[in-house]
Specification:
single chain; alpha/beta; 2 domains; 36% helix; globular
Amino acid sequence: MTTIPKIRYSRRSVLKTGGAAMAATALPAPMVWGQAIKDVTLRQFGTGVSNLNEVAAKVKEDLGFTLEMTALDSDSVTQRAATQPDSFDIADIEYWICKKVWPTGNLQAMDTSKITNYDKIVGIFRDGKLTPDSVIAQGTAPHTVGFVDGPGSTDFVDNESGWMTLIPTIYNADTLGIRPDLIGRPINNWSELLNPEFAGKASILDISSIGVMDMAMVVESMGEYTYPDKGNMTREEIDLTLGIFTEAKQNGQFRAFWKTFDESVNLMASGEVVIQSMWSPAITAVKSRGIPCVYQPLEEGYRSWGGGIGLSNSLSGIELDAAYEYINWYLSGWVGGFLMRQGYYSAVPETSKEHMSVNEWGYWFEGKEATDTITSPFGDPLAQAGEVRDGGSFFDRMGAVACWNAVMDENQYMVRKWNEFIAA
């Protein structure tokens, strides 16, 4: 579906287009935009989760400008956003990364009055609550780093101020992935990751800020310790957590530690690993090969994350206009439908529904039985009629979030101890 650009013009943005704009001064504004837009290129980087060639191609088709995408691992994303502000226009990052990057001043606050579907964004990103009765989970909940007082502010505020750090786009409730055909019994708890039964066949992701949260879920599940806040551990709690996992590593529990999506897929698809930290599209990728793989709901709940689009502080003029148009297009539904077919959730589910079949919406969002074959965005079959999504509906899954990916006060200490664990 093609959208008609509704760009806001200013003297500054018209001047920035140079000769092309001057030559068109006698033409209607939309034609000025039409002639100038083809020369706009926005540079976006982020993880492979949402930096997809299909999205860039659809932007070119619908909006007319070029979106150059670079996919990196989470640690590289963090470093680039914090140290190379002139190397990008759009940072597609997670909220825990925003906590590290925002104080640098490399991103600009965004005016929510320019976001067409702002009022339809789920409450998780606005006041932190999925429903009015929801209890906000531990860790760096997105709304806690989602707003600032205004342009130039480097301090987060605890209210919907009208100025967002990131415009939310994608999120999920993460858990352990398993190979049910190779395990042969029910898996119900996070503690199974360290079960000696799976020695040499387990894996955890090597991204410290995320991996340590998975570790905390395991430690609590084992009954070893209950954290006041898994997302903000003390040094003693970090030592305890990494100590338990270092001992398990030395006892041969882990086959590998992965950093990228493809690594996690290959470990699971090959059968080298039967239980591990995973992301939803990695499960999708394994299943699309005809290999049994389950994103296993666990009694202790999910570790969740959320991502969004941030804009470079140096972005201005027609490029800034284009970036806002891109954001509004992103939330208008096509991308949401594309991502939800991989098992993610859209920040504006209401518009995504318009780009999904009744069967797809029922399966991915409502937790209903599929009435026909469910396929990935690329046409690979993922589920057959009668099957239901792992974990059930949107509200079942996001309502069972125990913690969010986080940045701790003792982050530097945690990273040092994590590196010691990987090297042990």
